């Protein structure tokens, strides 16, 4: 009777361990995927922001080293 209890206990413990391990690995991969996706979205937003800030022409008075028209 004791060996069969030990066998069932071992089987139950091992199956629970593998289920928990599988769920942890799945959550780890999901977290990595979401972090990568969020950083990619943030990087796209920053690049669009930088492109839009560089494309705005500055008035001639604000450009360094360039003097206005001669009067």
Q: Based on helices, strands and strand pairing, what is the structural class?
A: mainly alpha
- Counting H and I runs of at least 4 residues, what is the number of helices? 1
> How large, in whole angstroms, is the Cα Rg?
31 Å
Order of helices and strands: H
Q: Determine the fraction of residues in helical runs and give it as a percent range.
A: over 70%
Number of strands: 0
The geometry reads as rod-shaped
Largest sheet: none
How confident is the prediction overall: mean pLDDT?
A: 83
Query: Termini distance?
Result: 109 Å
Low-confidence stretches: none
Approximately how much beta-strand content do the residues carry?
A: under 5%
